[in-house]
């Protein structure tokens, strides 16, 4: 153990708080909270600790930091913030759930949208979900749009550049805030109704629609009354379809937990006024050796940190003994008292058992899927080793691709697959320098040289410090020869290099004049294609971003009254060349820091309208 660690371990306080373990370059490896920092932190360095992964973590710890708090609940808050900030590799984490559908309400917009999404990270956006399937989300949105008539148009601002309302307004599916057919306050009330319904309050909108239907019928506005009736039936059907009625239970979240080795599954049954409005499922990683209470707390920090609401009661499995800190944390989130408990009898106990059973089934199903995917990846890697005559299994594969248009904005990408899976954290992009015109071979030579030179210099970047088992270059014999020449010149340990040509999907191998043609259905070829396509995607995205920045700079050089400060303001405001060029005069006049006279001159210059 390092001397600095020994000193810090000896001086650890006995009270509650948060601890951070760091590696030799200062990166945070793990964040944890403890009732007693002294006993908890010291346990990681004691022999005989049976927790899986503890030894691997302890070997990498170079420094530690502790933050003392007054209570364990305060430590939970701090742990949540630090985990979100650092995303430590050894912490329990929800598996990446980009594939799950959500309903998003863009509260940051002046007139918020209610939309389908598969992301959950934008500030100023309220998310509901994840839901079981995309079809259900789209059906829900269709019903909600017919009832609430929020704007379906895309973009932060409503409407089209022409200023003419779209068809949705004419078929009574939108209140048309783009033409001020509804006030901001009334539109906010519409969005509040949507949020209320998605949070489980279906009674309010049903009562409102019933009242409007009766008023319209009493005044003999029968067509309008029929529309309200149809909307009422739709909202009732949607509520009934999602609801399992248990009136005695009230408003609670029921949490079920199942653990198997390094994986865990959590099922959440949200009940609002006794109605189960949905079922949310999550997979957790890095749970090996952790007790159920730690796993539940880690899940709750992540889940309730982004949940639209916190119920007054949360039901948890019987293995959770101490719920005081979690209850205090959730109470602060809610703004009123939250009870966290394990029910011992009755309907609530049956719900917890049902949630646990669903969690176990989800865990088993996920294990089957993961094992099938792993077997498929291993088969592809074994076939690659055989057809390419490799010395070892290509556990780490790196692929390089070059992107440019007629020699402009030349860039390259490096994508990494480990055990047949994408290692996104190790992806890298390169801006190619010193080349004139179209020279894909020269660009490939430069990017391979820059990547493998980093090994010779002892670069601490984890992606650059590791040698691959196989290098794939996008292209033909020229790119292959360039990569081989670079590796030979650097005198590095031998690594296999191949080229994959896009048009016929031919594989070129050193020492063979003819290409190797793999079967289109071959798992080995499909893996190579997946790696190459990923490299192409990353390179193209970087190329477009760089070309857009260059185009923006070129355009600004010809515009009157635009210096560096105003240029930055325009880039920050519009974000892309396309949006800047499409901006109206009013939008240009609304750019912070840009005088109206200059804005009018810019608009005239861009649209060749003569002097302002």
Q: Describe it for me?
A:
By secondary structure, the chain is an alpha+beta fold. The protein folds into five domains: 89 residues, GIY-YIG endonuclease, CATH 3.40.1440.10; 141 residues, no CATH class; 105 residues, Nucleotidyltransferase, domain 5, CATH 3.30.420; 141 residues, Nucleotidyltransferase, domain 5 (2-Layer Sandwich), CATH 3.30.420; 49 residues, Orthogonal Bundle (DNA polymerase, domain 1). 45% of the residues lie in helices and 17% in strands. It contains 19 helices and 20 strands. Strands 4, 8, 9, 10, 11, 12 and 13 form a seven-stranded mixed sheet that branches. Strands 14, 15, 16, 17, 18, 19 and 20 form a seven-stranded mixed sheet that branches. The longest helix is centred in the middle third of the chain and has 42 residues. It is globular, with a radius of gyration of 29 Å.
